[in-house]
Structure formats: C-alpha cells, structure tokens
## 1
Amino acid sequence: MKTAICYYSRHHGNTLKVLQAMAEEGDVDLIDVTTRQAVELAEYDCIGFASGIYGFEFQKAVAESAQQYLPQGKPVFFVYTYGGTKGTGAKALIEIAKEKSCPVLGEFSCKGYDTFGPFKLVGGIAKGHPNARDLEHARKFFREIQKQNTFE
C-alpha cells in the first residue's frame, strides 16, 4: 500500500517522530506541507494528514493542503499530537474528507512535549512524549490500516 502523509511538525518535532515510526512499517512518503510544493496525491493508495494541535485544531496549512490536493474518494487517516488537550482533533479534516467522498480509516493521537505560551513558564507539559510506547502504538495503528485496507 503506497501511502503519502502530508504533515506539519514544528517546535519539538513531536508529529514527525510519530510519522517516522509509522513510515518504518511500509511504503510511506512524508510530505512537509510548508514546502509549498504542488502535491500529486492521486498516485497513492492511501493518504494521511498529520499535525500537532495548535489552538485546539490541526495546523491551518494541513487543512488547506487537504482541501486543495486530496483527490475524490481516496481513503484517508489522521494523526496528531497534543500537549494539553486534543481540542477538536481532526474534525475539520474529517469534514473535508466527507466533502470529497473519502473514506476515513481512523485517527491516531498521542501526547507531545509542549512548551507553547504559558507552558514554557513551567518547563513544558507532556515531557518525554511521544515516548517509546506512543511510537509503538503509532506503528500498530499503521499496521492495522494496512491490514484492513488491501489495495490492488
């Protein structure tokens, strides 16, 4: 299953760590949405979108990338990391997927070290995350998607 994951990961690289663990499990291309390259996702069997949670939702560039480049009917999944709260999680991206008749295969989320804003004053929250257990759960999530969705 050839998979593309369009992502945004800054600050501590929490989301990228999770995606790199997933990429160990299969044929995965990681696409950084900040490079502003035109992305041809039609050639992929499955597409993921990933981000940290910023202001209670996915980073805006990831949602814009999904709106612009997600082909009709492609299976999708979502990955996110968060410091304090999941916020709305992948809600906005799920809506985009519905608009494009894309089946949603699932969501994976885990804590991620966060020093944004007031958290910096206390040395951050969710220290040590994503940890080895989080990364193993990420790998397992991706293996399950692969097992459940065999594409010709």
## 2
Amino acid sequence: MLLITGTVRVPAENLASARPIMKQMLDASRQEPDCVEYVYAEDLFEPGLIHVKELWRTQAGLDLHFQSHHLAAWRATWNRLGIGERNLRLYIVDEGCPV
C-alpha cells in the first residue's frame, strides 16, 4: 500500500472557486480501481491550507493516477487558482490494524 499525505495551499480568496474543481478530482480519483482512500480536508485554523491523504493499493495504480485526465485537468487550474505551495510525501505502508 502507498500512502500520500501532506498539504496544498490555496489562497483563501480562491477557495470558493477551487472547491468544485477539487470535488471533481476527488470523485474521479475515488473511482480508480487501486484507490482505497482520497481525501482533502480544510485546516480549521489556517484558511486555504488543505490537508491531503491518499491511499493506493499498488504503484501501478498510482502511476495510472498520475497519468489520468482528471489529474491533468486539476493541475491545469493551479495557476489560475494560485496554487503553488505543495508539500506531499509518499510512504510505503502495510494495511495497518485497528488501534
């Protein structure tokens, strides 16, 4: 399993414009066969700071995601939305267990 976690910063004044585009990205990504989880969450105390969590079954599935039309469409909006700061990390994990 592959876990991607981190943050993306959207200027607070662009959040209303970004939300529908981000929703399209989430919905399409969640339909990918190897996607286990795909989440964006707005920070409660820092407007425009978006926490990202993705969980993928295989590297091959993640590679297909990186080549997908919906990811390309999302990236194409970054300049217009002012998205520049991204801090994402990839981790190899097992399936975990309840805590």
## 3
Amino acid sequence: MAQVTITVRKNGPLRVEDPNGLVEVVDADGNKYETTGKPAFSLCRCGASTNRPFCDGSHNKIAFQAPDCAIKVG
C-alpha cells in the first residue's frame, strides 16, 4: 500500500497525497467530509477559504504569510 504524504506549501495549503484514496477528514463534531477515492486534496491553512476545510486559493488573494519553517522539537 502506498504511503500518505502531507506537504506544507510555502504560504499555501497543506497538500495531502493519498494514492489509495483512503484518508478521512473529520470535523470536531465527528462529521466526515467526502474524500473517498480522491488521490490528492489541499487543506486550507489561511482560514479564508469559502470551502473550508479545503483550499480554494484564497491564500493568494489575501497574501497569506506562513512561518518560514517548522519548529524542531527535541
């Protein structure tokens, strides 16, 4: 089975690549978003998407600036 990869895009979304189409996205109330069979999708990081939790490209319109890199722990 192929591995799931999540890529943090610079000043953009979290890109989820799941060749098997098995990743589930669930909200705080336990409601599932339809992702069945999708080999890839992007999750909003800026908060401006009208299609949250999925990205709609709004980060470009608002000039979203994310931290430069991940904080290393340990």
## 4
Amino acid sequence: MNIEYSDMHEFAKEELERLFLSVGWSSGRYPEKLVVAMRNYETVYSAWDGDKLVGLVSVMDDGALNAYIHYLLVDPDYQGYSIGKNLIEMVKEQYKDYLHVCVIAYNTAVKFYERCGFKVDDVASAMSIWS
C-alpha cells in the first residue's frame, strides 16, 4: 500500500460523500456542503491510495494561539495502517508554535488521541448544540 498525502482543499463531492459515509458520519449526506467546508478550513490534509480518498483531517485556527481539529476520518478498510496517526502528526507539525491544539473526541476515539499525545482535559468539557 502506497499512501500519499496532500494539503489540497478541493475535493469532488463524491470523494467526500464516500469517505464520510464509510465511517458512518451523517455529514456524508451533505456532500455539497462538505466541498464548501473543505475550501474554508485553514488546514486540510488528505490521504490517498492512488485516486481514492482514504483519510482526511481538517483544522480551524485563529492564526496565532489556538487550532481545533474538526474532522479526522480514515476509511475503515485503511484503518490500522497509521494513516490517522500520520495525519495528526502533520497537524502537530503545522501548529507546533501554537499554544493549544484541541480536539473534541468521541469516546471511542479518546485512546487513539491519547496515543497521539493529547490529554483529556479535567477542567473543561466539550459542549455542543445539535440541529
């Protein structure tokens, strides 16, 4: 397997739809919106097996202090090959001079992020409004 990484922001809606739905994320039902979202993120790194999008991370930041990982997903057929870890390492390198790189992790992903160097914050909790 020869995975190549890119920092492009332009994706076909079909690529994003397939990847997001492969991990069961409802965002995949809105591929046109995902295309726009990827264009608007400050940082996007993607992983490719040939012309197949197999992983993606997107980050929002304030330009100086804080960066927020929004999406990190890897096609289930490609999990276990360090793709997610490599994408996170790219983010950590990009934001090494920032004070905080934050992620809101689903409970099933906490151990993964801990292996990547993140710590569960005991003074803050993730909160959200779902529509």
